[in-house]
Amino acid sequence: MSSLIFPAVLSGLMMGAVYALVALGLTLIYGVLHIINFAHGSLLMLALYSVYFLYTYFGVDPYLAIPIVLPAFFALGYVLQRGLIAPMSSGSEQNVLLITLAASMIIDNLALYFWTSNTRTADIAYAYDTVEILGAYLPLGRVIAFGAALAVAPLLWCFMAYTRTGSAIRAVAIEKRGAELVGIDVNHTYAVCFGIGTACVALAACLLLPTFYITPQVGYTFVLVAFTTVVLGGMGSLLGALVAGLLLGVIESLCGLFLGESLGQIGIFLAFILILLFKPSGLLGRART
Amino acid sequence: MRPQSIGQIALIAAALAYLFGVYFASSPVWMGFTINALIVAVVALSWNITGGFGGLSSFGHAALYGTGAYASAILQVKYGVNAWVGFGAGILAGALMGVFIGALAFRYGLRGSYFALVTLAFAEVLRICASSFDFTGGGSGLQLTLAPGVANLQFNDRTIAYTALLVVVAVVMGLTAFIKYSRFGAYLIAVRENEDAARALGIDTYKIKVQAMAISGAFGGLAGVLYLQLWLFIDSNVVYGSAVSIEALIGPIIGGAGTIWGPLLGTLGLHLLGEGAKHLLPNAPGLNFVLYAIVLICALRFLPNGLVGLAGKLGTFKKKEDDNA
After folding, report:
1. Nearest C-alpha of chain A: how many angstroms from B148?
2. Whole-prediction pTM
């Protein structure tokens, strides 16, 4: 059994990096707009289908699709926030949650209608070439996803820390009215932030597609894991999301190893409940009252 | 529960006329469809206790519904217990699950979005467990033996089942009205409006919220047992699935959260809309949920107090402090 643990931990880390990437977008949106975006998983599903169709109909390799899908989903996120969530929610926290829930219902069920519930996979042969890491064999596609996701977190952090847009986003997150007074367009900044969060999901989709399946329900699985990651890492903390994503990937992988495949996700949700109950501020989050 | 306006009287009268008209409908499809809607209305009424009066929006009411259904089904299938005992046990199990979730969540002061997420996680854990263990029938679910008769709570005649369901809905609404106008209801509404102020006035808000979860759990468990007795089959996706949780909250919000008639009116309205859409576009699974979502968005934007609130503004009798039916 012990010889299986190390490969399981490694493969958990690979999946965890993708969880982290999805959660980065969610935590960014939460940290700035203070809203919980239920449609996050549905947007991931939509991105997965976009990459899949680009690959099957136009022969665009999923990794080369990044420069197409990323801007498209940034725009989608921008429009979603400015056109639907902001005007319809009247500013109440519960309404935002319900609006994004409604958005995810619309996206998921339209996907079910147009693309049916069939499970699809893009058969990209090289993604399953194995790479040997410390004696464990891992699919190349997962290793690329791991590396890319790890690279994105510090890039995003630098963007927030050193660019003007990043400063504007941080200013709006901390003091909305103050930011408005110094001339920052708050609605625009909110929408940009939502767009970046959605672009993270599009990137995750490009990295995920070569080694993952797609169904219209796939978003629901991911959104719950992403919530867990965000809460575990501390709502709004980018570094926290990264650490938590990796940790949850390992937890899932080990639960799957010891309890059986179908119970792998139990570990994630139990971790979620325990964190929400005992330390809702998360591993790296500031205490909230 | 005095109606406040001509609009509300008209709305309630239309719903009652529909429910009565179903007895004389030319096609049995109407009754089958309305039976489903009424079961959902009971979950909606369950959500309304915590989400409507208490302001505690749960996104995982399937946890209560499914627990009621599974408790009764396990007792009946695995232990051969009588259906009536299973009926009571299901309600009790729902209430206990409500207390369990509530006690854990409120002890650590979870509110708002955090409470919504923790309830969602509970429902998901229960769903995965129910689909993984032999005890709960695993992935294939649990099937009751067909044995029609009042002793087994199984009705071959849809008309009798429908009438029984109408009585149950009326009782649950009666209890809702009783709760709303009781001292407990006033405390619960105070918790919704301003929890800190309520505590400052000496209300034990933790106890009130857990009690509300117990009542909500009992109603939710009841709805689960009703589903089981009418369909004689459950599995983890049917009773613990996210669709149940969504339907539980969407009906009250559209009908009017924290009102007595809102959950029933909202659920009936949505189901009629969904059914109509199904006839126009027969091969579109999930289309009803797209419509529900659009109605939900419009309701959040334009009907802050739901249908009941809208109807309350049409033809008001005279000025009242309280505009809820």
Report:
1. 36
2. 0.88
